[in-house]
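DM from R.C. (forwarded with permission)

"hey, sorry to bug you on a friday — could you get me a structure for this? deadline for the figure draft is monday and I only need the backbone to look sensible"
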Amino acid sequence: MAALKLKIVVVPTYDVESINVVDASTYPDEPPVVVNPILLATPPGFPAISIPFKYNSYNILTSDLLGITEAGLVNPLPDGIYQFQYSIDPSDVNFTNISIMRVDKLQLKFDRVFMQLDMMECDEAIKTQAKVQLNTIYLLIQGSIAAANECAIIESNKLYDKASQMLDTMLRRNCGCTGNNFLINFP
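My reply, with the result:
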């Protein structure tokens, strides 16, 4: 018989409006004896909220379920550090905690900048500089996630903010291309 080992993981939804928390626990009984599975979720900048949790399953959370918006109103979730605690019985000492750095809105902004960068339109110097900036931004985003995973919250937020600022600058500039280079060099 396996011992009880509670574990939850966050699986990407590729959607700014939801987050997927999956039960990856090992239960000693089949079917498991679960009294009152509860997920305590703390979104960034909001108070913790208790949510009924589907054990041995996935749990799609949206802004209304997380107490960010009123019931029935679903908005994009904020980026930042989310904390989750899962227990199968609130009176029990068995629980598990995880924290994750959500960057889905920042990733969406990154994707927009990337798609605006028409590689055929820009001259070589501008194209090369834009690639360097995008690589730097990508590393900042990954650094933000890594710092959050290591509980370095201040560093994580600094890296996130720097990546966001660089993306905003690139969006305002629209890569500096006019399209004339393409028309002249590729008739």
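R.C.: lifesaver. Strands lie at 8-11, 19-23, 38-42, 49-52, 58-61, 80-87, 95-102.
me: no worries. The chain has two domains: 8-102, 104-185.
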